[in-house]
Design goal:
Length: 407
């Protein structure tokens, strides 16, 4: 490996004893046949810095069960012609699933051929071509999720010896008819999926701002609208995880403008629908544009269940529409994340333990000191939603009680 950011062609080819390998974060290119026939390599994580994976890079890695492709990978053929160069993961017979990142636009020939235990594939919305034999002999393939609205063009024998009739093909609902009328694709068991939205890359949409909190807390979600075009009305349905309940809804700060009669310039309302979603509607009778930018249009106070397990929970807006006069912008599906975090009570300085150091950290915070590490959720020991001297006394009491009990 003469260059730190490049794994040379054939660098580890045939290293049969290699069962684990950590690719350095600065690597941008994995050369052709770099890990070919590393028959005991069991998993590989491709760092985000990697943009190119060469032909046959992992071909013949029979034990390779898990592959994570970094978000910036754009080529699975080393940048060469994908119709002639491929086989990057051919005969990785233990591989069970693969997700192709947004930068990949073509799947080269025989990329996953012989991956006989591959069960699920996720194809991003930008893929336009899948070349010859790309999934040949993927006999266990049960589900393909393809977000491309236009069915990718297929080469010869792409799904040779795949039971397409019993393989579920999940596509955007707006594209179902396109797939049903396209040779080969129409042979799958076609179902539809919502059109997922990359919130960061979109310029005109409604979304819920991501948030981290604790189980049992009451939090306020910010429903936001970012827009570059004029908007005088919007609507959307909000879906929260099961067990999460809405306590109240209030107008967002971004639409609190008033007219000369001190009445709200924008009519805002919400209601509960039969499917459990909360429907939001806001419009201007005078067709007055709303403030431009990324504005808050609603505050949604939500109760988090006490028994909610730590992890990421989906917050979904469906049937979003922004309107101005006769013009409108629709977005079928926008998803963000509400993260429930694990917490050690009183661990304000985030060192993994509860100690007198946390008391001094809370005191320093109250005095206005700049702290390198401070967790407001952990510091709110008494759970009243504010950091105060009450949390110091509650923490002292908690520590004393734990000490007396031998904890």
């Amino acid at each position: 490996m003469p260059r730190a950011n490049y794994i040379d062609n054939g660098a580890f080819s045939g290293c049969t004893e290699l069962d684990n390998f950590i690719i350095p974060k600065m690597v941008t290119t994995i050369g052709s046949s770099a890990f070919e026939n590393c028959i005991n390599l069991s998993s590989i994580d491709i760092p985000d810095a990697v943009t190119s994976i060469g032909e046959r890079a992992f071909s013949g890695c029979y034990a390779l069960k898990s592959v994570t492709l970094g978000k910036n990978v754009t080529s699975l053929s080393g940048g060469n012609r994908p119709e002639y160069n491929g086989y990057a993961f051919a005969d990785c017979s233990a591989l069970t699933s693969i997700v192709l990142p947004e930068g990949i636009r073509v799947i080269p020939k025989y990329t996953f051929s012989g991956c006989s235990h591959l069960k699920e594939v996720v194809i991003n919305k930008n893929v336009t071509n899948i070349y010859n034999g790309a999934f040949e002999d993927c006999s266990d393939l049960a589900k393909i999720t393809c977000y491309a609205k236009t069915p990718p063009a297929l080469g010869q024998d792409v799904f040779l010896r795949v039971d397409v009739e019993n393989t579920e093909l999940v596509v955007p609902s707006t594209a179902m008819e396109n797939y049903k009328s396209t040779d080969t694709w129409k042979g799958f068991n076609i179902k539809y999926a919502p059109v997922r939205t990359d919130v960061e890359s979109e310029s005109d949409l409604l979304y819920v701002q991501e948030l981290s909190t604790l189980a049992g807390k009451t939090v306020t979600l910010s429903l936001r609208m970012k827009h570059t075009q004029e908007v005088s009305g919007f609507q959307a349905n909000l879906y929260l995880p099961e067990g999460f309940t809405i306590e109240k809804v209030a107008r967002g700060d971004g639409i609190k403008g008033v007219d000369d009669d001190e009445e709200y310039l924008y009519k805002f309302s919400n209601s509960v629908k039969d499917d459990g979603s909360r429907f939001f509607l806001c419009y201007s009778i005078t067709n007055t544009p709303m403030p431009e930018g990324d504005i808050e249009v609603a505050k949604v106070t939500v109760n988090i269940p006490e028994n909610a397990e730590p992890g990421d929970y989906a917050m979904i807006l469906r049937n979003g529409e922004l309107a101005y006069g006769e013009n409108n912008i629709r977005n079928e599906y926008a998803q963000t994340t509400l993260t429930i975090t694990e917490l050690k009570v009183g661990d304000a300085n985030k060192d993994g333990i509860t100690s007198v150091g946390d008391i001094t950290t809370i005191a320093s915070h109250l005095l206005g000191d700049e702290l390198e590490k401070f967790d407001e959720n952990a510091a709110d020991v008494n759970g009243d939603g504010a950091i105060s001297v009450g949390d110091i006394t509650a923490l002292a009491e908690y520590m004393l009680s734990s000490s007396l009990q031998g904890k």
